[in-house]
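Inverse folding, one chain.
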């Protein structure tokens, strides 16, 4: 009688090695084409970093970058993935002929039979062996195959949640920046960079960026570099980059980590992402990865750690602000709690000692040519008052999200929005992206968010 033999599976180490080679080859190809995950533009609120459709948990590190690159290569628009068993358990099935994508899960515990103090097996009331999970001395890599939900049929998945409104996303980004503890300086020009020696980030004035999202994306890239400072994560890749200088492979490795990390952070915050590196960086990245294919995995893991570090400190600051506000009995500084709608076309924000009101005036309400032009265009007017009697300001906003952001920032920090018509004065904290710079607004440069990396 004929016998059928099951094909012997390759050893785990060999499968993991193949995975790293395939991953590196795909990323190198996409870098050359300018379509690697961190090189592509992503809209604010757009979801593209992979997550498990069943648990809702985001994949992390190398798996994040790998699945994102597979989605780009195959043209998937849905960011959700799952194993064959998960899809089947959810009532769906993977279409015939579909090819999955490999991920690596590192098991930190192993399952073994439980034993009592005398070394005898522990059994339950039915006489079956009891097992326990014990930590492994070294994490064990275990490959899995997952499929994008677009490769499956009959999956009844919930709709994806809506993106954060712009004012909320920018408020979260502002909190991450403040929580970093880095000294921010604004200098006219077209350079943005981090000075490790002074632990200082230098940025062009906010008004040069055109929109706040662009400003925050640039700032968070520099904060990613700053995570390497010795008083934070003390990353060797930053120290090596500073010592080796621009054009070195060490510099390229650090820039790769900062760019991937900022992509992860920007996406989590919902402010979108745009690559800001030219051909010189692309050539350096390709050279590094061709010589050391495993470097892309190491960069992805480091970038995930950097992003998590930044986001966690931002969340901690938010929780502290809420706790302090609750303990003092004052209004919370969180914009979604400050906000109170007072009418169909009127919103009011109240801080500890500041008030901001959003209105949409009729065209005839304008008293100057400037006001008439804005009311005819149906712009929103933000009126800001310091209850301490220091001053009053007004500012026009191009849309409701912009108006909410201006009102939220003023009541939370006391920083006046850019392009305001001033009627007094308010204080300005150390980091104030919307604070107007002294003198006339400079002419916008071609690329004010050009990144020059960490300065030596």
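Residues assigned per position:
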């Amino acid at each position: 009688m004929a016998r059928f033999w099951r094909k012997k599976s390759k050893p785990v180490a060999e499968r993991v090695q193949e995975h790293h080679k395939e991953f590196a080859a795909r990323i190198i190809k996409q870098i050359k084409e300018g379509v690697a995950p961190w090189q592509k533009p992503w809209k604010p609120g757009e979801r593209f970093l992979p997550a498990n459709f069943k648990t809702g948990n985001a994949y992390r590190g190398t798996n994040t970058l790998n699945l994102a690159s597979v989605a780009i290569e195959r043209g998937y628009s849905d960011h959700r993935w799952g194993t064959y068993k998960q899809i089947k358990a959810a009532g769906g099935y993977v279409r015939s002929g579909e090819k999955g994508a490999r991920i690596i899960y590192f098991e930190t515990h192993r399952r073994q039979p439980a034993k009592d103090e005398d070394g005898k097996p522990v059994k339950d009331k039915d006489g079956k062996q009891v097992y326990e999970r014990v930590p492994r001395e070294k994490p064990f890599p275990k490959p899995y195959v997952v499929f994008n939900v677009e490769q499956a049929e009959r999956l009844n998945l919930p709709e994806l949640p809506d993106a954060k409104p712009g004012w909320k996303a920018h408020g979260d980004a502002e909190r991450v920046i403040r929580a970093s503890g880095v000294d921010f300086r604004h200098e006219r020009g077209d350079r943005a960079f981090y000075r490790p020696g002074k632990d200082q980030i230098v940025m062009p004035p906010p008004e040069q960026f055109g929109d706040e999202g662009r400003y925050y994306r640039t700032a968070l890239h520099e904060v990613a570099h700053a995570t390497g400072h010795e008083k934070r994560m003390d990353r060797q890749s930053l120290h090596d980059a500073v010592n080796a200088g621009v054009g070195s492979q060490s510099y390229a490795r650090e820039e790769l980590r900062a760019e991937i990390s900022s992509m992860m952070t920007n996406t989590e915050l919902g402010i979108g992402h745009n690559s800001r590196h030219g051909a010189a960086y692309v050539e350096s990245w390709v050279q590094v990865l061709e010589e050391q294919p495993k470097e892309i995995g190491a960069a992805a893991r480091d970038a995930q750690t950097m992003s998590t570090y930044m986001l966690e400190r931002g969340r901690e600051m938010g929780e502290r602000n809420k706790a302090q506000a609750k303990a003092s009995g004052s209004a919370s500084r969180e914009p979604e709690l400050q906000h109170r709608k007072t009418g169909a076309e009127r919103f009011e924000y109240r801080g500890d000692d500041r008030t901001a009101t959003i209105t949409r005036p009729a065209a005839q309400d304008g008293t100057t040519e400037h006001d008439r032009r804005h009311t005819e265009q149906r712009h929103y007017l933000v009126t800001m008052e310091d209850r301490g009697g220091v001053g009053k300001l007004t500012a026009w906003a191009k849309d409701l999200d912009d108006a909410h952001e201006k009102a939220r920032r003023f009541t939370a920090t006391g920083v006046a929005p850019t392009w305001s018509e001033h009627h007094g004065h308010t204080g300005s904290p150390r980091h104030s992206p919307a604070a107007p710079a002294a003198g006339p607004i400079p002419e916008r440069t071609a690329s004010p968010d050009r990144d020059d990396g960490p300065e030596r």
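Residues 331-344, 418-449 have pLDDT under 50 and may be disordered. The radius of gyration is 26 Å.
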